[in-house]
């Protein structure tokens, strides 16, 4: 277990800002003083501490290196109105995703505390890991005040290095990759050692995240050295699996292209290559590759080796990606944690968003009208099978047959998307949940499914034929995006009607963070997940329950993914 020491001094100050008096509080941490500012809302107040460094700036000789502990600072950290900068990343033209200042010195976290600062409170803590495909996003885009106030918990949002700066690898100890995951662990260490000074309980920490953040959460639960840093985990639309860990051949392709474009490809050894990369302006790194370089426009596949987590034989071992059995020693830590995982019923909207004009021309369709069966049988299924187990046509045919319907063109279009959502999100989540729950008397397991579509869908409105709640439609229940997303007048009523469901979901999440059990007063009962009945809750209006989510798809695809796990272990890294 990790030991921690509390050095607690709290000063209450009032600062004059114009004609207003701003209440502030200064907290002494192991690293130095941090100043937080009071925010007032109709249902209470929140103290907001922003831009707290948790590691040394990853610049110069610390670029492409594991994060280094921050040590002690001299000046008080925390400025009224300040924002933590985003880590360097590609421009992504979605509301809120292109509004943040980017700086390479970006290893900061933000802390939100309800009511007052007192070490006697011993509040449960929730640490949010943002999504964005490991290539974009930032902590400051997520305002957790609704969770903080309604759930009476401390919420921490963290940055981590993205893209090449976070995950580039040469499979050498000097350039091993996975720095973004190491950043997350370093942030958790800082939180563990200091959150008591803010009134938090370091022995009641829940990590939660969505999409890439959910994948990071599931990965962190598989690293035994993280024991003591958190006690519970919630993975929303993201599970690490054989189809989400970068393949070595993708990493090699990225390495060759990246080094060529930065003129660092003619060095004698890895040490010289590292020095060359550390000398570059950061823009030369973020601009060296584009989405076109890692996306095959002919089949819409995203082959981003070196831009997201990969098996490195140390931090992330290849055998961690699906164990041989629940008793596998690498999963002992995972099964000791309370674990919640879930998805949305329309996760496959990501496919409809990513189909390029080249694909639409090749298969003679317009995505606003339909996605034909040929896209499934000739493109997405073959790519999935090839990535998992190699060229096995009979498995492609099994998938094609399973996701075929004669009901209507719209229904077939949704079936094509359904395969994408099942294979990437839903089935990996089902597998992870069953591994966690089977004969487990030490911790709790829960599953959810969101079926309530968002009135403001992530990425814009889907085609009219699309059915279900799309990827990312759940994060609106937890965070306030009012300052970055303008709500059209015609949708305000629908957004307001969602508030009741949002409050129930926040209660579920924060109850789980406090007790390892999401149930409580005035909310429908959420049954635990077990390996037999596989019960889950359906988050919609009304809230209800179900059993054995996607059993047929899980039986088919888990068999393929298990073969993929064996292949991953067998193949030489």
Descriptive notes:
With 573 residues, the protein is of the alpha/beta class. The protein has two domains: 10-245 and 308-318, Alpha/Beta hydrolase fold, catalytic domain (Rossmann fold, 3-Layer(aba) Sandwich), CATH 3.40.50.1820; 363-570, 3-Layer(aba) Sandwich (Rossmann fold). Helices cover 33% and strands 17% of the residues. The chain contains 16 helices and 15 strands. Strand 2 and strand 3 form a beta hairpin. Helix 12 (373-389) packs across helix 13. It is globular and about 70 Å long. The model is unreliable at 1-8 (pLDDT under 50).
List the defining traits of the structure above.
573 residues; alpha/beta; Rossmann fold; 2 domains; 13-stranded mixed β-sheet; two-stranded antiparallel sheet; 16 helices; 15 strands
């Amino acid at each position: 277990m990790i030991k921690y020491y509390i050095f607690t001094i709290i000063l209450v100050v009032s600062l004059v800002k114009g004609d207003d008096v701003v209440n502030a509080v200064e907290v002494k941490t192991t690293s130095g003083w941090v100043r937080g500012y009071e925010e007032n809302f109709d249902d209470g107040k929140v103290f907001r501490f922003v831009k707290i460094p948790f590691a040394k700036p990853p610049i110069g000789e610390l670029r492409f290196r594991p994060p280094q502990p921050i040590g002690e600072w001299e000046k008080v950290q925390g400025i009224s109105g300040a924002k933590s900068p985003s880590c360097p990343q590609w421009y992504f033209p979605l509301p809120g995703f292109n509004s943040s200042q980017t700086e390479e010195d970006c290893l900061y976290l933000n802390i939100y505390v309800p009511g007052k600062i007192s070490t006697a409170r011993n509040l449960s803590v929730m640490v949010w890991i943002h999504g964005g495909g490991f290539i974009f996003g930032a902590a400051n885009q997520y305002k957790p005040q609704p969770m903080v106030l309604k759930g009476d918990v401390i919420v921490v949002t963290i940055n981590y290095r993205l893209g090449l700066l976070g995950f580039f690898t040469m499979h050498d100890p000097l350039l091993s990759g996975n720095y973004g995951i190491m950043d997350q662990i370093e942030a958790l260490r800082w939180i563990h050692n200091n959150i008591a000074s803010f009134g938090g309980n370091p022995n009641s920490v829940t990590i939660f995240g969505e999409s890439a953040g959910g994948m990071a959460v599931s990965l962190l639960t598989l690293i035994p050295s993280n024991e003591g840093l958190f006690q519970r985990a919630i993975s929303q639309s993201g599970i690490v699996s054989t189809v989400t860990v970068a393949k070595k051949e993708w990493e090699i392709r990225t390495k060759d292209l990246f080094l060529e474009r930065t003129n660092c490809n003619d060095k004698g050894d890895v040490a010289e290559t590292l020095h060359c990369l550390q000398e570059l302006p950061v823009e030369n790194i973020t601009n060296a590759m584009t989405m076109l370089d890692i996306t095959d426009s002919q089949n819409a596949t995203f082959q981003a080796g070196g831009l997201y987590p990969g098996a490195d034989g140390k931090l992330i071992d290849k055998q961690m990606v699906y164990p041989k059995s629940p008793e596998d020693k690498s999963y002992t830590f995972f099964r000791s944690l309370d674990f919640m995982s879930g998805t949305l019923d329309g996760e496959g909207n990501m496919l409809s968003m990513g189909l390029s004009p080249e694909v639409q021309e090749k298969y003679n369709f317009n995505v606003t009208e339909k996605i034909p069966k040929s896209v499934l049988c000739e493109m997405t299924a073959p790519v999935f099978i090839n990535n998992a187990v190699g060229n096995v046509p009979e498995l492609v045919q099994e998938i094609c047959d399973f996701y075929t319907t004669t009901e209507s063109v719209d229904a077939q279009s949704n079936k094509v998307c359904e395969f994408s959502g099942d294979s990437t999100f839903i089935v990996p989540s089902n597998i992870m949940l069953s591994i966690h729950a089977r004969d487990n008397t030490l911790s709790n397991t829960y599953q959810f499914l969101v079926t309530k579509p968002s009135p403001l869908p992530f990425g814009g409105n889907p085609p009219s034929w699309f059915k279900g709640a799309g990827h990312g439609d759940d994060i609106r229940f937890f965070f306030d995006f009012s300052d970055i997303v303008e709500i059209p007048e015609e949708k305000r009523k629908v957004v307001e009607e969602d508030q009741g469901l949002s409050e129930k979901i926040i209660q579920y999440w924060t109850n789980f963070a406090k007790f390892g059990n999401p149930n409580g007063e005035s909310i429908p009962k959420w049954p635990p997940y077990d390996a037999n009945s596989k019960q889950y809750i359906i988050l919609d209006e009304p809230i209800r329950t179900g059993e054995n989510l996607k059993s047929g798809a899980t039986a088919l695809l888990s068999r393929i993914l298990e073969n993929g796990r064996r292949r991953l272990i067998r193949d030489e890294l």
